[in-house]
Amino acid sequence: MKTTRDDLAEYRRRHVPLYNGNRLKLGLFAMNCSNGMIISKAATSQRIEWDYQLGLAQKADALGMEVFLPVARWQGSGGEIDYMGTNYETHTYAAAMAASTSNIMTFATVHAPIIHPIVAAKMATTIDHISGGRFGMNVVMGWLTPEFAMFGLAQRDHEARYDYGSEWMDIIDRLWTESEPFDHVGTFHRLTAAQSKPKPIQPRPVVFNAGSSPTGARWAARHADFNFTSFGTVEDAQAYSTSIRATAREEFGRELGVLTFAVVICRDTEAEAQAVLDGILDDADWVAAENWMSTLGLESHSFDAHMFGEMKRKFIAGAGAARIVGTPEQVVEQLKDISDAGMDGVMLGFLNWQEELDYFGERVMPLLKEAGLRG
Ligand SMILES: Cc1cc2nc3c(=O)[nH]c(=O)nc-3n(C[C@H](O)[C@H](O)[C@H](O)COP(=O)(O)O)c2cc1C
């Protein structure tokens, strides 16, 4: 029997953490890549080692967070720290995290042009089963050309990447839902008797996409369940989320969520938090930041409008994300502003992940409840 949109929505409200009643969803982002969102030589406790990473997933799970989202990188951005250059592959990571957690959704980030849709559909289904229906797929159309060169692949031009992505995602949706083998002759793929059994536990695993160019945002409106975006001011965030949700609803009859990401530096006093930020900026790895920004500037439309007018400093502590600095009360105020701007959730990053996540759990989570942002 075919799942209708209403059935899917009802299933998700009952079973899928990202559709629970919390007004502000929370997660961790980029923890699987060295230096996470902080392009600085500042000392960090972060380790790309299994025990450290597993500890993060289990702490986030115990705190009731909804999302555990790794970044897919294949090489770093150079500089002294080789920013993000040490990293775990995201499907194997999500699978293992799924087996070791209870409620949090474990995501993989998949490069559509690199991973064949039959393989991607099957890996997603497998992790959905391992997790008991808590898997999410963050779909990326291609991003950093040097990474593609590693595979001997040339990136398609920007528009064609999303055409490719539409065909890729349509194939996956068929593999996830159709009981009979099917042939497919498209622009990019020819498949004979394509099939995939078993089916995922969720009627459709949750799909993220971080495109924010006009074409990228349209792709997200058509295929994704959540768009994942950076923003300049809260007014920009409001305008962006209103517009992309309207596109999804009016053109594709779909409900789209919108999420963003932020680096949090939270300490007992504002002065202490500010001192940590100053330390990060003083020890900036400018070469890595410039490498990363120039690859983004050349190859992405997501950041240029609001980012390149701003100082590189924003990239040092945040890598393009919002920056939330202050006492627990101030952090809650800033998270509330983001929520009021129409964001459904914020994916967080820290300097010293384990310690700061513990502190966030003890000091910030209770205040988020008091503020009505979380139950
Ligand atoms: C928050 C965020 C996370 C992203 N994560 C990844 C990633 O893990 N791997 C990757 O190759 N690209 C990643 N991207 C790149 C996007 O998928 C997309 O290619 C980029 O933002 C360009 O979007 P556009 O095509 O709409 O200009 C990310 C982008 C953003 C804003």
TrEMBL record:
Residues covered by the Luciferase-like domain: 25-344
Keywords: Flavoprotein, FMN, Monooxygenase, Oxidoreductase
GO function term, MF aspect, one: oxidoreductase activity, acting on paired donors, with incorporation or reduction of molecular oxygen
Alphabetized InterPro entries for the sequence: Luciferase-like_dom, Luciferase-like_sf, SsuD_RutA_monooxygenase
Keyword Flavoprotein annotated: yes
Protein name: Flavin-dependent oxidoreductase, luciferase family (Includes alkanesulfonate monooxygenase SsuD and methylene tetrahydromethanopterin reductase)
